[in-house]
Design goal:
alpha+beta, eight-stranded mixed sheet, 16 helices
Length: about 525
């Protein structure tokens, strides 16, 4: 076994090494020398919640589930601030020379919240259940190349692959691969190894968790209890923070930045990342199945204005694919799209949709989609296209609108590597292929890139992946949107991790409340 993948940090940093910042007075250096305080009840309000929320990691699909999952469970690895996989329930990990087999040495002395000792069989079950069609795992597409997972004694796990895959340690640090007990099929409650025990779970209402006194990380968690719920309205969410009713909130809207920065005892917590908002045009139904219509829409996005005016600079211009300009595999040869009314008119005419009218679904559930939709509506009118915005309620948006309506707004949280993101969203058979764009060549490229460690070869593959999506895909992606959250100045220990809000959703065992 090799001890380390060659150039692993360079290979893995492409999506996440984009920078993270704390604003309004927070000081990570100061906190590094601060002594964590124990005790207290943390109240957290997220921008989304759903009556369909689950406690089964294999079926996690939205922000509210990700953060809850990290309170109750652990992964074999954990994603750090640099986007690297670091040991968690695994003590160490290594691969063979061609990255077709991985070995994870497990941490000893870890127990589940019901007292059962964690061992290799739990890890084997937790990974292999994603391959079972009956489980209907949202991450099934990510385990296609896993041939077998076997226990090597009580404290070792071997993963054999059908093709090279250098992403395995990173993959196992994501929320879908949190470890459950061997044989678990009932997820009406949660029994994990995580820092907190489940006290109350009312989907769409709230979750309450209490400290796991037998947590394997000495001295952690610091908090006694966390209450976790959704406040869909962004104004109400910020008002609750300013009033002291909550300690942390996700998705501070850019138009409220000044108010938050002026409020006493409030800190803005921003993380630059490859999260993106897109207008999904489904390729399997009319009228968005017309490729010329899709190209028309892509030429009607005022990307600079979206970043500068709507996002207030907390974002980066995108070019209708999911790779940021800062990435080593970014295709710089593709012309940067902007507003081109003549091109839009040309494609609308070619599509037979001159003076057409279409409905675009937007919602507060997709941050800034209403403002972006209004801007798109204005530019479309100049080209003769009428876009009727239909504002959908946040509650039920992901179950009633997403992947069901021809033209709708979507927000994608980043994944640790481009390969993971491509596999989840752009593979033909991906459960979350929300535009239903299917291309055999694209599938082949994604599969090959996943096992390509050499950066030059990986870049060549991704240049072609991006070109196909740019030219043919159903994704109109105007901008990458930084995470902007807000916290009470009493909250300490929160680190920016560019895989999600509030420290990559994984704050439960690291934050504390200053007395």
């Amino acid at each position: 076994m090799a001890n380390q993948i060659p150039n692993r940090r360079d290979f893995n940093k492409s999506l996440l090494a984009t920078g993270a910042t704390l604003a309004a007075g927070a000081s990570p250096l100061r906190e590094a020398f601060a002594r964590p305080a124990r005790g207290g009840r943390l109240r957290v309000a997220l921008h989304v919640q759903s009556a369909q929320d689950t406690l089964d990691p294999a079926k996690f699909a939205q922000t509210s589930e990700y953060a809850r999952g990290f309170m109750l469970y652990n992964g074999l690895t954990r994603i750090d601030e640099a986007g690297e996989a670091v040991p968690e329930l695994a003590e160490s990990f290594e691969a063979n020379g061609d990255v077709t087999e991985w070995y994870f040495k497990l941490r000893k002395g870890v127990t589940f919240q019901d007292g059962k000792t964690f061992d290799a069989e739990d890890a084997v079950y937790s990974i292999m259940r994603h391959k079972d069609p009956k489980v209907a795992s949202a991450s099934k597409g990510l385990v296609e190349d896993i041939v077998d997972v076997t226990a090597d004694g009580k404290d070792g796990v071997r993963i054999k692959l059908s093709a090279p895959n250098a992403d395995i340690p990173v993959l196992l640090g994501t929320f879908g691969f949190l470890i459950v007990k061997n044989g678990t099929t009932d997820f009406s409650t949660a029994v994990g190894t995580g820092p907190f025990r489940l006290k109350e779970f009312k989907p769409g209402v709230r979750t309450v968790v209490t400290r796991n006194e037998n947590y394997f990380k000495s001295g952690r968690p610091y908090l006694d209890e966390i209450e976790y719920f959704g406040i869909a309205d962004p104004v109400a969410r910020l008002n609750a923070l300013i009033a002291g009713d909550i300690h942390m909130m996700s998705d501070l809207r850019p138009n409220a930045l000044d108010e938050a920065k002026k409020a006493p005892g409030i800190e803005v917590f921003s993380t630059r990342c490859p999260r993106f908002v897109q207008f999904a045009m489904m390729c399997d139904r009319a009228p968005t199945n017309n490729p010329d219509f899709r190209l028309a829409v892509k030429n009607l996005l005022d990307r600079e204005r979206i970043v500068n005016q709507i996002l207030k600079g907390y974002g980066v211009v995108a070019n209708d694919h999911f790779v940021m300009p800062q990435s080593p595999v970014y295709n710089s040869s593709l012309p940067q799209r902007g507003v081109d009314i003549d091109k839009a008119k040309f494609h609308l005419k070619k599509a037979g949709m001159e003076n057409a009218s279409i409905e675009l679904r937007v919602s507060e559930a997709v941050q800034n989609s209403i403002e972006m939709g209004l801007l798109l509506q204005r530019e479309a009118a100049r080209a003769g296209l009428t876009i009727n915005l239909k504002r959908e309620p946040s509650d039920g948006y992901w179950s009633n609108i997403w992947m069901k309506r021809p033209f709708h707004a979507v927000q994608w949280n980043p994944r640790p590597t481009e390969s993971i993101m491509a596999t989840l969203v752009w593979k033909s058979d991906a459960k979350w292929n929300d535009t239903q764009f299917k291309d055999v060549r694209l599938d082949q490229l994604i599969n090959t890139a996943r096992g390509t460690v050499d950066l030059a070869k990986r870049k060549e593959l991704f240049w072609e992946i991006e070109k196909i999506i740019y030219e043919q895909g159903g994704n109109a992606i105007p901008a990458f949107v930084s995470y902007i959250d807000a916290i009470s100045s009493k909250v300490k220990g929160l680190s920016p991790i560019p895989t999600g809000n509030l420290g990559g959703f994984n704050f439960a065992d690291s934050v504390w409340l200053e007395n």
